[in-house]
Amino acid sequence: MTTSPLSQPEVDQPPPSRSRLRETSLGLLTSLAILAFTAVILYAGFIFLRDSKAPKLVVAGVAIVWGVAGVALLYFGANHLVEQLPDRWTALLQPYIFVGPAVAILSWYLLIPSFRTLYISLLDRTSENFVGLQNYIDIFTQRSLISTFRNNLMWIVFGATFAVIFGLLIAVLADRSKFERTAKALIFLPMAISFVGAGIIWNFIYEVKDISVPQIGLLNAIVVALGGTPKAWTASFQPWNNLFLIVIVVWLQTGFAMVLFSAAIKGIPSELTEAARVDGANEVQIFFRITIPYIMGTIITVSTTIVIFTLKIFDVVIVMTGGQFGTEVIATQFYRQYFTNRNFGLGSAFAIILLIAVIPIMIYNLRQFREQEGF
Amino acid sequence: MSVKIGSTRRQRRTSSLLVNSVLILLVLIWSIPTFGLLVSSFRTKEDIQSSGWWKMLPHREWVQVEEFKTKDLDPNSVMTIEGVSGTFKEFRAGVESPDGTRVRWVGNKRRGRIQVEKRQWTMRDDFTLENYNEVLLGGSVNIKRADGTVKAVHGEDLSDAFLNSLAVSVPATIIPILIAAFAAYGFAWMKFPGRRALFILVIAMLVVPLQIALVPILRDYVKLDLNGTFLAVWLAHTGFGLALATYLLFNYISSLPRDILESAFIDGASHFTIFIRLILPLSVPALASFAIFQFLWVWNDYLVALIFIGEKKEVKVLTMRLADLVGSRGSDWHLLTAGAFVSMILPLAVFFGLQRYFVRGLLAGSVKG
Amino acid sequence: MQVKRTLWFLPAVLLILAMALAACGGSATPAPTQAPAEQPTQAPEPTKAPEPTKAPEPTMVPAVEVSGTGQPELDKALAGDYAGTVVTMFGPFTGPDEVKFNESVAEFEKQTGIDIQYTGSKEFETTISVRVDAGDPPDIADFPQPGLLGNLAKAGKVIDVSTYMNMDWLHKNYKQAWLDMATMSGSSGDIMAGVWARFNGKSQVWYPKKAWDEAGYPIPKTWDEMMALTQQIADDGDTAWCIGIESGTATGWPATDWMEEIMLRTTSLDNYDKWTRGELPFTSPEVKHAAEVMTDIWFNPDYVFGGREGIVSTFFGDSPAPMFEDPPKCWMHKQGNFITSFFPEGLQAGVDYDFFYLPPIDPQYGKPYLVAGDIYAQFTDRPEVRAVMEYFTTGASLKTWLASGGALSPHNDASLDWYGDDVERKVAEMVQQADSVRFDGSDLMPSEVGAGSFWKGMTDYVAGTVDLDTALAEIDAAWPHK
């Protein structure tokens, strides 16, 4: 089934009478008053928050109310204004009231910087001279830079895949278990931990000490107990040390996938599964023949989100290895080249490659939408 | 017939056993790292560095029962100590005697001592609250002054930073969700020129790494004199979180049953009314789910706060304060452990508060079909 | 319609709220800081009654003595002309060092009424770049690596302090080498990009004195003696060296320090300088030889605690800790004098630990000393900022910091008596008496190399990812083209 956008039902327009005109102009005035009033509130709040010496609790409370109410008021005022206009204008303008702010903010924060980055990537390190594709050529010819892409590929292949698989597995199992709430809460728990916190947690797993002293990393303690020698998991066995970082992200992101999958599974009508059981299907068959197809939309959404997340992965690498030991990824390379080395051209080229790398995923998603939503 | 039902029931029972045991196994694996952190957060700095956190659990271990000097021993030959004999190297590793004791040479050949150990059940129980104390109250630094006196300088406690984090996180969660919900509705249920192009733009922005925006946005903020204000951080988080919010909410809102909206239109409701009265209430589970994620991301964010709040002390958030607390001495694991738990409290409260909405959650795709 | 009515209610509430806010916000706005309360004209209390502390000196000098510098703005500031102004500072040190810094400027703030607001961030290198590029720099920033400052100076972002400072005073109070190192190429010609605030001696080898004396180990005077001792300790059943190079994004820097030390001891100063300027490539025999000398210690599992696995994965600040266990697990640790603040708490300088000078290798190159330091650079040009910069050219600005330990003063007017313990005093003395002093080479190289490929190359080599020739070639390859 396709759902196409609704359009305002065509109502026979009564001829504009004088009283209606007066009503409209009155409405317009009200709308303008709302907007002006919102502006005053926003400004007063802004000045207050910037300069106030009031107790922290008051400031925080005001900040929350002011920020949230301000945005709500802006929408309300703008919409009120548009609805006072003749219907044809309303129909034309109202959608932009809805999507406009989002598009504007995204353009300001991300779109314009992207174009700027694209431009800088064609200039030299100090953005003085045009060098064409030289920065891109550099990236693809140096060993230490190429390994960046190998690592990102590992992140996608292992990180995203396992996060999705474990998320799905746990969601399905929890759905049939008595401990659903507890299990889901515990799997979700890592999401509440900051990356610095996650870094310290995994140090207690990966830390290596000399064999002559007690190990404080769990993994090496097990290895030593089994008669092995302690290993520096995140530093040795390159490039496989990346896997030990990926484990961290799987651990963190499975909760995200699980929550979304779990919600989708709840949406499967029980008649469907019951009917299948009556027909003699076993649980595995139900999983593959009913559950998976039914939540395919969610699987695509979650996979897309996590693949993009792993492509942009930054914090875990910075916290665990700082990009050393061959664990550099695209985002850390951008950061290092652009901010530390101040090689603006090369850094920007990395960011642009990241953008290009995701185009196939975007196209796939849009095609899905087109099938479903009549785009 | 009854036989068949019985076997199905048995089948169900075994399958439920299997389900639960696999689930418990996974949950245990997932919890071990956090549990290790929790245990460690109650241990002293020295303990954390010298033994594994699992030593706080009951376990069998070699415990020293006797110790003496190595005076009359020649480490360069085979020695006999306490009835067992071996070379220096063997004694360094520990030589076990038949009666269950172990004799070990501790230290090098010049400054050694002999330890006799027995294997016993033991557990360490020297827990401390000092880490939490230091994290919450800001810790103290001893400074030796020019006149030789020592002055203890106390850091600030975390209450201000906690409130700042709250003032940053709550609007930075709600504002993008509100804007995204409007946009998601617009894309899903309104018809207008440029709809497809704008939607592609939103989706494309999903992949832009926020690092590229830091310099241009900060430059704009400086011009607008926004830098270091709450508004600056809210808008930044809104800008960086909006694409994903719109994407996820679009998935949900576009899949709401079409007939509900159509009947509302026939009743003469406007888009705005439908959105406020119908769509928002229907989307509460989706909004709540995304709210949790956005809240967690903002609450744990360090980079955006660092750049846009900068050096203004009075608006520093929790993550920045915790990073400062550890300071140049990056090895202060004991503070990080306690700090991680302190900063987790609120997100967990939010999670449990909103957990019931997860029962339905982001119903992406599920109403379709 | 019902909707609208309820929604109307919201603005009304908010209006009241907004008016209330504007009222209290306005009243509280521009309150100047506590300046007027303390009249700067009041001279510091003439005789601070010498409290009956264990302080040895009978005469208590006031913490700040900064007269006679001939620095124009500083004199005005001391006269109280800039009371009530604020100067912002940004730097990489946080925690205890931040407290030490605040202590060291407290007296000055009291005298002048200038409020110096320091903020530290562990992400300093990145943040300062972003903020300077965006036009939102702090007034003054603390650079632990002159290389990064050099980049900003070249982009024309840094104020040339020589345009207003009394150069006679600078020449009097700094050795020429410091002034030379502060001189960098700006957007048009050379500028003095900042003033040196403090430094660290690097050529120390620390050892656990108590256990060391009990074991009867000698202090090595030559490299060969040191290697013999290393072997002796190995024969006695221990590993001699504690080494750790893990340091987050900066992992590998302790290895570059070793390289620099050995370079200074195996080749001429001229070659060292060429090397830091990029004229002597890493693939040259001199540099390769230095790496091989290092390898003889680092790659021998009998010599280093934890072996190569331990080196790459041990946090540099944790690496000396095994020296102070009973019995020690390792016995020697080469590191700058700041490392003492990473030692386990409660250790006493000169009793529990001490250091010896990392011995020379080839006698013809004498006894060089490797140092590193922090330079303060200025980004905004206001009189009170100038005054604070001028204050930092005096030893008095560092006095309480020297007492609390962890820094050495580059100022000529800083007295050796000011150091809080004998060990740091000894470092300061040794640097003064060294045959030659050279600055940490990696800090002088452009950040691609000095804070990038050099760290990375050494890390990869120690971790066993690449062989020495590949590592050195890759370090060279990162050297910027221009």
Helices and strands of chain B: which structural class?
Answer: alpha+beta
Low-confidence stretches of chain B: 360-369
Give the integer mean of the pLDDT values of chain C: 82
CATH architecture of the largest domain in chain C: 3-Layer(aba) Sandwich
The rounded distance between the terminal residues' Cα atoms of chain B is 36 Å
Biggest pleated sheet of chain C:
6 strands, mixed
Average pLDDT rating of chain B: 80
Share of helical residues of chain B: 55-70%
What is the CA-atom radius of gyration of chain B, in angstroms?
Answer: 31 Å
Order of strands in the sheet with most strands of chain B: 1-6-5-4
Oligomer: heterotrimer
CATH architecture of the largest domain in chain B: Orthogonal Bundle
Question: Which two chains have the most extensive interface, and how many residues on each?
Answer: A-B, 130 and 132 residues
Number of domains of chain B: 3
Strand content of chain B: 5-15%
CATH topological fold name of the largest domain in chain C? D-Maltodextrin-Binding Protein, domain 2
The number of domains of chain C is 2
Principal-axes geometry of chain B comes out as: elongated
Radius of gyration of chain C: 26 Å
